[in-house]
Specification:
6% of the residues lie in helices and 42% in strands. The chain has 484 residues and is mainly β. The N terminus is likely disordered. The structure holds CU-O-CU linkage (C2O) and copper (II) ion.
């Protein structure tokens, strides 16, 4: 309908996408299987992940070329408990090198799976670490410098759930796949049988699709049999920002953010997630009803052009929940969930400023052999991040969970008060973040901080930091492995 001669692309990017009313909800939502693990003699819980290429039938009779972990698209859900030693064997059966990063995980930099821990085609990598952070919904995905958007968009992503004493003792829905559902949201576009991953003209945000999938399922529905349903929302899209809510505008409770539980449940009717962010929400169902999780138009101060070109005018019907005629009763949500685990800024020893735009961070594009800053092990810092660009970005820091102390000149909105590792930055916004670096010092192994709009990351909106002991100076990152 939009094809008018040579103006096709221009007209196309100006049209808002909407799947409202057109999603048939004809496919049962797939639930990624829990990854099997075995206990090694040394007590470590061992998982195996194999990166593979394959074909996936998202639509009947049409097989799409995709990549996945242990299957053709996405990957199994890894699950471990605080205090456990985790060992993962990652094998790469793809035709090219990649890496696997544990997004949100607090772990030694050499195990982080960033662009310095490449796994060559045909090769393997075996990181291990001890889980030492609160229960949370984390995820894993490739991080090869310059091609992360492509690798994630082809299907390499999965969830990594952490449990602890607090999460296990609270009366929260936690029956995986039953009343506790992973909701991995991605936007996609097809051209014939294949994914169309091209970027539309004028869209400096990177890839934006024209429909969404959850857990690799198009127009999904899920039958539920409990009064309270916990949705672990993960925005695994490469660039798209969503404001999630329900089509009938019902309220839900936000119980967790990127790095774990909130101090108390927060009643909301919208929660905004930029790429990489997570939200755990609990929604109350009435017997026999249906409701639709919707990705609404953004109301984020994007301005006219970004509203258009960054997809802020688009609306997607994402997932339909169908309640059974009789529902298992669920206890009320507790009024207190956990105590704050992130620093409040009062003991920060240093304040740093980051100006981010498409040219890089503080004016410099990412360089693999340049360490941008060193932080002292055991100290807290305050980072002030300013988007001085005309387009939306976000900011993700590896290894830590931070607290958002301020947004622009005021306190953060309530939905940003839980532990975070990624935060949205609309044009001209500033966020003030407090974090503590208490991992092991390793002056030669950097962690990354970057924009999680993956094409921006690929273009160099990324920097590197190392954790050093007091008085130690940063070293040099290892040379790139051959073949990268
Ligand atoms: Cu989810 Cu540095 O990435
Ligand atoms: Cu960006």
């Amino acid at each position: 309908a939009l094809a008018i001669g040579g103006g096709v692309t221009l007209v196309y990017v100006n049209a808002a996408v909407s799947t409202v009313g057109s999603a048939e909800f004809s496919n049962e939502l797939a639930i990624p299987p829990l990854a099997p693990s075995r206990l090694r003699p040394d007590g470590a819980r061992e998982f195996e992940l194999e990166m593979r290429s394959g074909r996936t039938e998202f639509r009947p009779g049409q097989a799409t070329e995709t990549w996945g972990f242990n299957g053709s698209y996405l990957g199994p859900t890894l699950r471990a408990r605080r205090g456990e030693r985790v060992a993962v064997t990652v094998r790469n059966q793809l035709p090219e090198a990649s890496s696997v990063h544990w997004h949100g995980m607090h772990l030694p930099a050499a195990m982080d799976g960033g662009p310095h821990q490449m796994v060559q085609a045909g090769g393997a990598w075996s990181p291990q670490w001890t889980v030492d952070q609160p229960a949370a919904t984390l995820w894993y995905h490739p991080h090869p410098h310059g091609v992360t958007e492509k690798h994630v968009q082809r299907g390499l992503a999965g969830m990594f759930l952490l449990d602890d004493e607090v999460s296990e003792s609270l009366p929260l829905p936690r029956n995986y796949g039953v009343d506790d559902l992973p909701v991995i949201v991605q936007d996609v576009k097809f051209r014939g049988a294949e994914f169309d991953s091209s970027h539309a003209m004028f869209r400096d945000t990177g890839f934006l699709g024209d429909r969404t999938m959850v857990n690799g399922t198009l127009t999904p529905y899920r039958e539920v049999g409990d009064e309270l349903i916990r949705l672990r929302l993960l925005n695994a899209s490469t660039a798209r920002i969503y404001t999630f809510g329900f089509a009938d505008e019902r309220q839900f409770s936000l119980i967790g953010t990127d790095g774990g539980l909130m101090e108390r449940p927060l009643a909301l009717d919208r929660v905004q997630l930029s790429p990489g962010e997570r939200a755990e929400i609990v929604v109350r169902m009435r017997a026999g009803e249906r409701t639709v999780l919707r990705g609404n138009k953004l109301d984020a101060g994007l301005g006219f052009w970004n509203q258009r070109f960054a997809g802020g005018d688009d609306t997607f019907d994402i997932l339909q929940l169908r309640a059974a005629e009789t529902l298992r009763p669920a206890p009320e949500l507790p009024s207190v969930l956990t105590r704050a685990s992130t620093p409040d800024g009062s003991d920060s020893v240093r304040e740093r400023r980051f100006d981010i735009n498409l040219a890089g961070i503080n004016g410099k594009p990412m360089a693999m052999d340049r360490i941008d800053l060193a932080v002292t092990r055991g100290t807290a810092e305050t980072w002030i991040v300013h988007n001085n660009d005309g387009m939306p970005h976000n900011f993700h820091i590896h290894d830590v969970q931070f607290r958002v102390l301020a947004r622009n000149d005021g306190p953060p909105p309530a939905e940003l008060t839980g532990p975070k590792d990624t935060v949205f930055l609309p044009p001209n916004a500033t966020v003030t973040l407090a974090m503590r670096f208490d991992g092991p010092a390793d002056p030669n192994s950097p962690y990354m901080y970057h924009c999680h709009l993956l094409w921006h990351e690929d273009q160099g909106m990324m920097g590197q930091f190392v954790v050093v002991d007091a008085g130690q100076s940063p070293g040099t990152p290892p040379p790139m492995p051959p073949g990268h």
